[in-house]
Amino acid sequence: MFHRLGREMVQERPPRVERRLTAVLAADVAGYSRLMHNDEEATHAKLTALMADAVAPAIAEHGGRVVKNTGDGFLAEFPSAVEAVRAAVQFQTRIKELAAADAEERQIVFRVGINVGDVIVEPHDIFGDSVNIAARLESIAEPGGICISSSAYVHVRGKVSTEFADLGEQNLKNIAVPVRAYAAVPNGGRPAIRGDGIGPSTRSPPRLSIVVLPFSNLSDDPAQEHFVDGVTESLTTDLSRISGSFVIGRHTAFTYKGKPIDLKQIGRELNVQYVLEGSVQRSGNRFRVNVQLVDTETGSHLWADRFDKPISDLFEMQDEIVSRLANTLNAQLIAAEARRAERSLHPSALDLYFQGMARWNKSWTPGHMMQARSFFARALELEPDNVEALVSIALVDAALAVLCSLMALTSASLRPKRRRSRPSPWIRNTPLLTWLWVSSSCARDERHKELLNASKHWF
């Protein structure tokens, strides 16, 4: 019996998984979808040639092997981090030399991520968090750049000629624990890094950075294209007036017109946090405009709206749509940045300014205004010369002064000839009037209780 039980237990034991410690190198082609859309055959031929003439020789020379090709890139492993970095520097340099004669928009450029860790090994692939981290590091590298993890950096420090800039801890997508990252500094210049992580480093996209993509013309009439493009251009101009915003110019944005769109890829290529996209459709005597604001980091839709207008004057309607969109987007972008700032462990003056503006935009009640003023004041403590915070404090103070004056006038007009210990029911059912009554009445026993009750509903 025991013999049979032992045999069954042996049979149920899962097969042994082969693991090993290795240096993982992940690489992909920047803007691959755009390149393939422009010219599939030429892009495929160039990529094949670069892999044969630059990548494969460098990997082989440094003792590595290509684990697999991924279509727009490849995965490789090396016996040491030092050899992985040397191979990456070698093939990146060679690729740059080979692509020098090509037009910039047709150049094939790789991004590289390197990590050291334990992997699961199969005959034609490797798996595990170490592979995922290398891939995520590659995704934050600038085209032509190399980004490595701290586990790789400790092995290469002082052993390779390449210098690395410390990017701090990065919150990489789908990686539970922040990863400290380092970017290669080419020839003593600036590190080649790109902004789509969340970590506190110079590689992050500019705050309030946005591109307005060319709106799609869904109408059957191609003649309406000028109207559609006009909406895009006007929105680009109006959004650039938002304080602290960084808006991609129309000429760059229009290079994406009529092409397949990957919003996350656009965010990486243009180093922007937000994308505004939309469409215009004419139906009979009416125009319908759909717009949506997307976070390029997460791909989430932050806001969407639809405008349905009769066709009376196209350009007058364009001005109205642009004005409404710009005003709404101003508030939406500030709210999005405020939510992002709330997650920051060490908020900057700009973080605090956005949180203050979010309170200010929420409502003009004394409670929200005082909250906004508090954020603006904290921003000034960090940056005494912050003009936006200083002006915002002045606006809050002015608004509070006007509001208090109106309250005093309203309170005087509502004050009854004979002071009563309790307000009339119609006042008690209106939180604002209750607050005014409490602030002006002599019913001291009830004042504090009523004020607290009113503030719950109003402030």
Short synopsis of the structure:
The chain is of the alpha/beta class.
Number of separate structural domains: 3
What's the alpha carbon Rg, rounded to whole Å? 30 Å
The percent range for helix content is 40-55%
Instruction: Supply the CATH superfamily name of the largest domain.
Output: Nucleotide cyclase, GGDEF domain
Give the ordered list of helices and strands: HEHHEEHEEHEHEEEEHEHHEEEHHHHHHH
**What's the CATH topology label of the largest domain?**
Alpha-Beta Plaits
Q: Summarize the main sheet.
A: 8 strands, mixed
The top-level CATH class of the largest domain is Alpha Beta
- Counted beta strands: 14
Intertermini distance:
76 Å
Instruction: Determine the structural class based on helices, strands and strand pairing.
Output: alpha/beta
- Beta-strand portion reads 15-25%
Quote the average pLDDT.
Answer: 75
CATH architectural name of the largest domain: 2-Layer Sandwich
Described by the principal axes of the CA atoms, the overall outline is globular
Contiguous helical run count = 16
Low-confidence stretches: 188-203, 416-452, 454-459
Topology:
Elements: H1 2-12, E1 19-29, H2 32-38, H3 40-61, E2 65-69, E3 73-78, H4 81-99, E4 110-122, E5 125-127, H5 129-140, E6 146-149, H6 150-156, E7 163-170, E8 179-185, E9 209-212, E10 216-217, H7 225-239, E11 246-247, H8 250-253, H9 263-270, E12 274-283, E13 286-295, E14 301-310, H10 314-342, H11 349-362, H12 366-382, H13 387-414, H14 425-428, H15 431-440, H16 444-458
Parallel strand pairs: 4-6, 9-11, 9-12, 10-12
Antiparallel strand pairs: 1-3, 1-4, 2-3, 4-5, 6-8, 7-8, 12-13, 13-14
Helix pairs in contact: 2-3, 3-4, 7-10, 10-11, 11-12, 12-13, 13-15, 15-16
